[in-house]
UniProtKB/TrEMBL annotation:
This is Mannitol dehydrogenase family protein. It holds the Pfam family Mannitol_dh. InterPro entries: 6-PGluconate_DH-like_C_sf, 6PGD_dom2, Mannitol_DH, Mannitol_DH/Oxidoreductase, Mannitol_DH_C, Mannitol_DH_N, NAD(P)-bd_dom_sf. One of its GO terms (molecular function) is oxidoreductase activity, acting on the CH-OH group of donors, NAD or NADP as acceptor. It comes from Pseudooceanicola albus. Residues 285-468 form the Mannitol dehydrogenase C-terminal domain. Residues 28-276 form the Mannitol dehydrogenase N-terminal domain. It comes from the Bacteria.
Length: 488
């Protein structure tokens, strides 16, 4: 059956669809960045509330700001903005249809439809999933990147911006002038202090064109920090065929693991859904949850993805089953990451590592090493180097983490050990690749990328093992380096 409102009554046996009247829903959230993660995570939590008869005035309007978002809009519009979610459990998969999104705004230059929607007083939350590297953070200062061409454009053309942030500011100006009040800006990206970073970007951009508006936004809008977690692979031919085995024709299905977590600061200036009734956690200490997740899970992904790519291991579960990569993950996590992570309610670092090991090893989740290795220039500084700095500060070893960085440099040379080519996989690939090739003979050249490494380039406790591992990787290969580190 083709997924649509008209066919919901005909869903195959065993597949749960919306029990609520979708025609009676009204929008309360605009979500910018309708990738797989949002549809498997935030959209699902809201759907579960709606199944309980709650939050029917909090439905989602999807949005995008790039031309390529139009293709996703077309796919979702053809099936009334619903998504089939397929949970991939080693003990058996199941599917459900999520209906919490009721529209997807047209994508136009200048973002007029998006601005108009966010200016509507009924919209009380504007949420985003725009990736870790999408917040215009200056790579050197970690502050606002005011000189980025997108920010220069939006500051000069505040009524016809090209970015989500410029559109949010334009909508907030309308709301301020009309006296309809602020909305909450809610980042759902994997950034420590993601709400604070969203505030920084929005207020700083507004200040370039309208300082009084910037002050109003800073004073009246709220930006809750949050931690989000669910492994959600990309959708390709395999997933499109999988959804058909459930008896559904869906042009944009989403597969996901059998685990979700969402920890949120309870700071919403215009109200919020009761997400905790669907399993989310409201906490005043999001930072502790963020640190555990970013260091152990996201950092763990980077530990194994680059060596997996270089050795042509296609999936994360394949890396965990590899006789060298799996033990490499375990040793680095236990000896060099866990010592700097504190317990949170419900989890010690050791218990969380056990959970992550199980999740990464799930063979039903076809999560590619290429996807996880993407944008290392954002992920390594965010997920790996904080553990390096804390290890050095504590006088503990960082040998394995230095090898992780060296393996990333080896990956960025653009070839795998079987001779195949690594296609461009980083926004800064044009700079990283020649630097990585040169670092095979002079490892220090890689660390001289101070935008990424800063003072670590001059810190012997990190720079010396990095150089040693680069030489082993170049002369003996990745398996030789892993064996040396593991002592096998």
């Amino acid at each position: 059956m083709k997924l649509s409102n008209a066919t919901l009554k005909d869903l195959p046996d065993g597949i749960e669809g919306p029990s609520y009247d979708r025609a009676a829903l009204s929008a309360g959230i605009v979500h910018i960045g309708l990738g797989n993660f949002h549809r498997a995570h935030q959209s699902w939590y809201l759907h579960r509330l709606m199944q309980q008869g709650l939050a029917h005035d909090w439905a989602i309007l999807g949005a995008g700001v790039r031309p390529y978002d139009a293709a996703m809009r077309d796919r979702l519009a053809a099936q009334d903005y619903m998504t089939t979610l397929i949970e991939l459990d080693p003990e058996g998969s199941r599917a459900e249809v999520v209906g919490s999104m009721i529209g997807y705004l047209p994508i136009e230059d200048g973002n007029a439809p998006l601005i108009a929607a966010m200016a509507d007083p009924a919209i009380r939350i504007v949420a985003l999933t725009v990736t870790e590297g999408g917040y215009y953070i200056d790579p050197v200062t970690k502050g606002f990147h005011a000189d980025h061409p997108d920010m220069v454009h939006d500051a000069a053309h505040p009524d016809s911006p090209r970015t989500a942030f410029g559109a949010m500011i334009a909508a907030l100006k309308i709301r301020r002038d009309a006296g309809t009040g602020p909305f909450t800006g809610q980042s759902c990206d994997n950034l420590q202090g993601n709400g604070a970073i969203l505030r920084q970007t929005l207020v700083s951009l507004a200040r370039l064109s309208d300082p009084e508006l910037a002050d109003w936004i800073d004073r009246h809008c709220t930006f809750p920090n949050s931690m989000v977690d669910c492994i959600v692979p990309a959708t390709g031919p395999k997933e499109l065929e999988l959804v058909r085995t459930f008896g559904i024709e869906d042009a944009a299905p989403v597969t996901h693991e059998n685990f979700r977590q969402w920890v949120i600061e309870d700071t919403f200036c215009a109200g919020r859904p009761d997400w905790d009734r669907a399993g989310a956690t409201f906490s005043d200490d999001v930072h502790a949850y963020e640190t555990m997740k970013i260091r152990i899970l996201n950092g763990g992904h980077q530990v194994i993805a680059d060596v997996g790519e270089v050795l042509s291991v296609e999936t994360i579960s394949g890396c965990m089953a590899h006789p060298l990569i799996g033990p490499f993950f375990e040793k680095v996590e236990r000896e060099e990451i866990l010592p700097h992570v504190h317990a949170v309610p419900g989890f010690t670092p050791e218990q969380y590592l056990e959970l992550i090991r199980t999740r990464f090893s799930n063979p039903k989740i076809v999560d590619t090493t290429r996807r996880v290795a993407f944008d290392g220039s954002s992920r390594h500084p965010g997920f790996i180097l904080p553990s390096v700095r804390e290890g050095l500060k504590a006088g503990l070893p960082v040998e394995g983490l230095a090898l992780v960085s060296a393996a990333w440099a080896r990956y960025c040379t653009g070839t795998r050990e079987d001779g195949s080519t690594v296609a461009r996989n980083d926004p800064f690939w044009a700079d990283l690749q020649p630097r990585a090739v040169a670092a095979a003979d002079n490892p220090q050249l890689w660390l001289e990328n101070r935008v990424l490494y800063g003072e670590l380039a001059d810190t012997p406790g990190f720079a010396e093992p990095f150089a040693r591992w680069m030489k082993i990787l170049t002369a003996g290969g990745t398996e030789a380096a892993l064996r040396s580190y593991l002592g096998v």
